Amino acid sequence: MAETARRPDHRYGNRPTMKDVAARAGVGLKTVSRVVNGEPGVTPDTERRVREAIQALGFRRNDSARVLRKGRTASVGLVLEDLADPFYGPLSRAVEEVARAHGALLINGSSAEDPDREQELALALCARRVDGLIVIPAGDDHRYLEPEMRAGVATVFVDRPAGRIEADTVLSDSFGGARAGVAHLVAHGHRRIGFVGDRPRIHTAAERLRGYRAAMEDAGLPVDDAWVSLGSTEPARVRDAVAAMLAGPEPVTALFAGNNRVTVTAVRELAGRTRPVALVGFDDIELADLLGITVIAQDAAALGRTAAQRLFRRLDGLHEEPRRVELATRLVPRGSGEIPPA
Amino acid sequence: MAETARRPDHRYGNRPTMKDVAARAGVGLKTVSRVVNGEPGVTPDTERRVREAIQALGFRRNDSARVLRKGRTASVGLVLEDLADPFYGPLSRAVEEVARAHGALLINGSSAEDPDREQELALALCARRVDGLIVIPAGDDHRYLEPEMRAGVATVFVDRPAGRIEADTVLSDSFGGARAGVAHLVAHGHRRIGFVGDRPRIHTAAERLRGYRAAMEDAGLPVDDAWVSLGSTEPARVRDAVAAMLAGPEPVTALFAGNNRVTVTAVRELAGRTRPVALVGFDDIELADLLGITVIAQDAAALGRTAAQRLFRRLDGLHEEPRRVELATRLVPRGSGEIPPA
DNA sequence: TAGGCCCTGGACAACGTTGTCAGGGGCGTG
DNA sequence: CACGCCCCTGACAACGTTGTCCAGGGCCTA
């Protein structure tokens, strides 16, 4: 039979389309489009008929199709390390608020600190044709984004710089913060200060280590290799590292912790000891005030906000050299950093 | 001139399309599609030519267009309250992991506890044609989702039940948790126990209050209206509430805090006092172990994981009555809940 | 050697929307 | 009364992809 009705091959569970609405309202397709988009040039009476049909059918515009036609998706992507980390929640939220103010949705993904996964995610977002991309790098080579950026995907890197590529970047002053934190310990009389940090291929970790070394050098203090421990932030590893620095005949009298996770574990480890050990941690932590933990605080929300604002300025057509912004950190003394050497 | 070339009206910053790739490789459009999608029926030699062209042009498939054709977007939406809240970060991350295992992306949105914003977000996600939707309700009427659900959008509610609509729901046992927490205080000798909670229109807040009352009644204890305070979780309000309960001739000797934010503020307020007051809080908190805060812990990640698994089972075609799952809570004694009455 | 089958490749329509353009009707003005 | 203008309205193409279907060529078999 020649007339087997040509049935569409999928249909979203049979959602009504503008065509259906048009048929029901007895108007043209384009008129429905006009009503839905609030475009002028529709009689109040026609508009009412269309709205009734929309109601009756439960029609909702398919933004996927719209995107295809318009070329902008009104969405931005955010690739971060781990949404469950209390540092990234506020950052993501800040990005979301800026996006919302610009009428855009946010798609985020966690790289779990895996460069391959970062790339996979970022490219998947590009395939979705996000208008812009904010990336907290896990890897150190971002040339894979070059074609995307050339094709017009605005891209901003946050928290850590991009690798082998020029792009807008928003950072915290890790070097300066760590230097100030260690100097604070020095000022309170410490001469043997330990540093427990994350893997040094992570830019912030390397910078903080550099800040530590700079502060020690500023004070004319030597740095014993045994005082420096870099590696994963696994609690077990950090505990071992702390324990090692506190053992032996010449133990450290103070610790600088390279990020929030290290700080938490270090506090737990120190809590079990009798001899007081001074501690300054990078990143603020909830309840740190009650525990009296001195920290170098960075403003995660400000990082996200700044990056997002930059992104949307690019999307609004800003055309200038990529810029690198460093946000200041803040020393918050709360007791643990003011303990004198034992 | 009749021949002014018809220029496309937008172009994504001029991204190459399959057509461009086909032209460059000297093959047909569909052949490119086959290569990109790993479909069979392409000679190795042809495939190589296509891949070279893709490389040379920096082509990346436009998933927006793909979605339009295929009907599935491979993305799910999550509407939560506030991504910056340490409770929701892990929940969102757990959803993301399940989605990733199913090859889907996650689009997040924060409702800021505003029902209108919740609706706006959820419907925007539907317009993007997410395959499924996970909602942590801010409002108490979700009939607006009925057309969407009928149209095939799988929907699961988490943490709080849906309002005026039947749908899959995953909850923590707020009632039982609060009841157990208050019973714990009673077991340690307390008879005057205060309850500081969130606004009662929030389902979990109401349930926890109910649990509190049940535990008091179980123990045959009266509840003075002055011991119950419900309202925003603003620190100022919570501090005032706590202060009020501790003032007067017959102050409470123990407090039950209705959620993580209340707990944090209560701990801060109690820290400034000399007379010890027992405290049990709902939700676990980072570092609560060090501060010795006894809590009723709920597993945010398990909530998210369970909900997401349910969602994808629906997407895989599961067809059965909506189900309501309640996850158990866990009492974690750490000291503050075991303080005897002063 | 003819017939049939498989393998490769391409033309075409369709997904649901928006931009362009042209037509028709009403109304004001000369 | 006629002309022209403006306001509504709808037909049509296009966005970039995938599903369907058909054509051509090579190879195997009878």
Automatic annotation (TrEMBL), chains A, B:
Question: Is Transcription a UniProt keyword of this protein?
Answer: yes
Cite the GO molecular-function annotations of the record: DNA-binding transcription factor activity; transcription cis-regulatory region binding
Which InterPro entries does this entry report, sorted A to Z?
HTH_LacI (IPR000843), LacI/GalR-like_sensor (IPR046335), Lambda_DNA-bd_dom_sf (IPR010982), Peripla_BP_I (IPR028082)
Organism's domain of life?
Bacteria
Q: Which CDD domains match?
A: HTH_LacI, PBP1_LacI_sugar_binding-like
Show the Gene3D superfamilies listed in the entry.
3.40.50.2300, lambda repressor-like DNA-binding domains (1.10.260.40)
Q: Which UniProt keywords apply?
A: DNA-binding, Transcription, Transcription regulation
Outline the extent of the HTH lacI-type domain: 16-70
Keyword match tRNA-binding: no
What Pfam families has UniProt attached to this entry?
Answer: LacI (PF00356), Peripla_BP_3 (PF13377)
Q: What protein name applies here?
A: LacI family transcriptional regulator
